[in-house]
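4-hydroxy-4-methyl-2-oxoglutarate aldolase (Chromohalobacter moromii), 162 aa
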Amino acid sequence: MPTIITPDICDAYPDVKVIEPSLANVGGHDAFYGPVRTVKCFEDNSRVKEAVNEPGDGAVLVVDGGGSWRCALLGDMLAAKAVDNGWAGIIVYGCVRDIDILNETPIGIQALGTHPRKSEKRGEGQRDIPVTFGGVTIAPGQWLYADNNGIVIAHEPLTLDD
């Protein structure tokens, strides 16, 4: 995997979009990248569970949880399933839980924060649609690059140095 350094990406590719700083690394990999797939949901992680149970093929799941601070949309079991199914990372515009285990899970995860309460399971939400948060609209098929400096979005894969 090439080294992901988002400041260098911004320097080399000034047209990439940068998500406003608000998310923090909480997974076992600090840097990750891949093509985007999306979930839009609010306090119901049914579609997140559905997505991580499918082959990830190196993609990054971007979850627009509406910025809710009232429950977690991802925990240790769904993160482990994402690893098993080949996802490169998960971005959660919302909260996660089981943080100590997530920190040791071999996948990139960024989220707004942590919350111990699980979400509802009503089967609500949408998949594979453009989502907007942090000042950027993110669409399925775009490419996401993330590290401890931030998250950038490109319309196509970027050439990175190894």
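The mean pLDDT is 97. The two ends are 7 Å apart (CA to CA). ok done for today
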